[in-house]
Amino acid sequence: MDKLPVGDKRLESILIGSDKIQQRVEELACQIRDDYGVMTPLCIIGALKGATIFITDLVRTLSRVGKQEMTLAFLRASAYGDVVRTGDSVGMRKVNIDMLGAKITAKHILVVDDILDQGFTLSGICAKLTELYPEANIKTCVLLKKELANPSEEIKALRGSINPDYVGFKVQDRWVVGYGLDAKEMYRELPYIALADEKAFD
Fold first, then answer.
1. Active-site entry in 8, 57, 117, 165
2. Residue 117 is among the residues annotated as catalytic for this protein
3. What is the DSSP letter of 91?
4. According to the model, what pLDDT value does residue 102 have?
5. 118 located within any domain
């Protein structure tokens, strides 16, 4: 049975339990296997660090449900700085993408990330991969998709341009941790998704 860390008042409650996560991971794996086919070469790229646990469980489950011809790669992505405008383009934060020496030959790429929040990171990843591999078929998979409460017009436009192909769960506009997601590098190891008290980390 899932339990919050004893005596830790920085976490409010468990939002998504470990059993529910594992069930959803299996459902996603079966959908991905069926969509790509068992023998279609597929490169699965995980975004560090948040997606580490999710992608590990996902590829193991994909193997268990019969998906073959998979390769695994990782990249490091970080959004930083203030919003930047170029002409009439949507405001974008700078996104740094480090491919960590990955050599990708598959024509099908599945990007796996932990959460779609404002959208800067996932958008930046897809733009970089499209630049590097223009002939590839690039799809995306996120464990969580946050339902933003009061996004700016720029964020609305950006989020409207991003439609993940596979979504584990939709979550409220709160700070969530666990199963790879962190608060100041803590709580990644939790087997569930929990709500964090944002004021406790100011």
1. 117
2. yes
3. P
4. 83
5. yes
